[in-house]
Amino acid sequence: MRHERDVGSESDRATGACLLARRIASREPDGFRNTPEKGTRLHDDVEAGAGSRKHGGFASFLAVEDGVVYKPGLESNPRWYQRLLDAGVEDNGVKPVPVESRTDTRYHNLFTVFSTALLCVLPIPTGMLGTTAFGMSLRDASLTILFFSLLCSIPPAYMGCGGYKTGMRQLVQARYSWGLYIVTLPLLLNAATVTGFTLISAIVGGQTIAAINPGHVSVDVGIIITILIGFGVSFLGFRALHAWERWSWIPNLIALVITVGCGGKFLFNQAETEPVTAPQVVSYAGLIAGYFITFGGTASDYSVYYNPNASRVKIFSYIYMGLLTPSVPLLVLGAAMGGAVPVVPGWADAYSSYGAGGVLAAMLEPAHGFGKFVLVLLALSVLGQLAISMYSIALNLQMLVPIFTKVPRYAFIIVVSVVMIPIGIKVAEQWETSLENFLALIGYWAGCFDAVLLEEFLVFRRRDYATYDHAIWNVGSKLPSGAAALAASLLSMGLVIPGMAEAWYTGPIAEKTGDIGFEMAFFVTGIFYLPFRWLEIRWRGHL
After folding, report:
1. Neighbours of 321 (CB within 10 A)
2. pLDDT tens digits for 393-415?
């Protein structure tokens, strides 16, 4: 009888081992749900299963295990790297953060990380385009800014809620609609977009530095100084970003208020304009959409460590107001500055030489030496925006190929900083044209991207964040193929291109309506994605 019990026990153990191996191999979704109890199980299975496989030599460096998640202190680090971590450098890159590691409850930081990043001179050039490039009056430009800012801040704020609920960065979430491989396309586009905003901040900061002592410091040198200082904050990572953004808004706000106080009397002098037309409003609205809607590609990057028990209304409100509160008044200020440039003596020359920074310097002239100090604060105000942009660019690059997952995040920060300096100097040579084209073009792809992610979550995943299974975040066979997202986006181009209005091309639809490329990208992509994704689910048998 004892022999029979031993045989039975051995048989049970063998059966259990087979079942465990089969579960690890198949990655059953039910065993890996993103809940507190099962999040722990995910760690156990990954570490005991796929995560325990050993590779020798270079193969060990190349290997990125399926479903591996971020767990602080799991691996031993070299002494020099551990010192960086002890100094506050963020260790994690793009690996999902399990629920037991999402403990931060300082949700108000989500407001400050966006509001401080945008409480700077960055929105001012975009506002100036309404009156300088589009020839709108201050009233018409301001109304367009207000309405479309209220509308276009909604998608990125809503998408940002996915970070603290799933523990995944924004472009990792995108894999659950765009697939593991096709997501490379929006990855590159998003990296280019965020790089563009970083360059805008660096150029405006550089122009402002150059305007402090005209003829002594060039715009090129100012751009280099701005990028290098921004590099320092983004290098440290998540905690440093939130700490910087929590307090740096104070000198930014003081500097902006002083500037308006010194030069505000000139802003009432506005150039005469023709009555506004619908194409003007629609085209400028597309630029405002491009300014806000592209945050949908990064919003979740800054919320992945927060406790998922907070209400979505709270998180949405913090992100929404963080985007909206600083942007609207500064965009309107830019529109007022642009309308005054042609009529206020000296402002046209200042704008021609140093862009928005030159106009800010002209506004501060009555303050003399103190005005130069305020200009320094204005130039440094862009550092918060530079920091969060470089942070997101590095995360995007980490997702391009599997090997990059094991490259430390800060290494990409270094590469990005080196590359941006010569590009920023080149872009500054054709400043206004480059800015206008950039803001319009990014709105097109961002419309496609946001439409796909929102429809995927609202329609196909039925607003259930648990369907974003950690165990398959880097498993191509378990993720969607991405064909539905790509096909819907490409087909939308059939109406986006005729609806474009650029300096180098104006489509037949845009000639009558103005630039409606963003609207076409968003709504047409959404229409096509619905049947395509439904067919893909039927064909593959899973989400």
Report:
1. 16
2. 777 887 887 677 777 766 777 78
Q: How many CB atoms lie within 10 A of CB 41?
A: 14
How far apart CA 480 and CA 471 sit, in angstroms, is 14
Four-CA torsion 487, 491, 492, 497, nearest 10 degrees: 130
Helices 368-380, 219-236: inter-axial angle, 10-degree rounding: 50
Q: List strand residue ranges (DSSP E) for 277-371, in order.
A: none
210: how many CB neighbours lie within 10 A of its CB?
28
Convert 434-496 into a string of H (helix), E (strand) and C (coil): HHHHHHHHHHHHHHHHHHHHHHHHHHHCCCCHHHCCHHHCCCCCCCCCCHHHHHHHHHHHHHH
- Tell me yes or no: is domain 105-447 CATH 1.10.4160.10: yes
Span 507-526, average pLDDT: 92
pTM of the predicted model as reported, rounded to 2 decimal places: 0.81
Q: Closest Cα to residue 23, out of 48, 54, 52, 53?
A: 48
Domain boundaries, the chain: 105-447
Those residues whose C-beta lies under 8 Å from the C-beta of residue 154, and which sit 6 or more positions away, are: 320
Q: How far does Cα 361 stand from its chain's mean position?
A: 30
First-to-final CA distance of the chain: 50
Burial class (CB in 10 A: 0-12, 13-18, 19+), 435: buried
Give Cβ neighbours of residue 390 (< 8 Å, ≥ 6 apart). Answer: 198, 230, 231, 234, 413, 416, 417
SS3 306: strand
Question: In angstroms, how far is CA 26 from the centroid of its own chain?
Answer: 33
96 Cβ contact partners less than 8 Å away, ≥ 6 residues apart:
69, 70, 166, 167, 168, 172, 304, 470, 473
Which one has a higher pLDDT value, 379 or 93? 379
SS3 of residue 127 by DSSP: helix
Residue 19's pLDDT is: 42
* pLDDT value at 74 more than 90: no
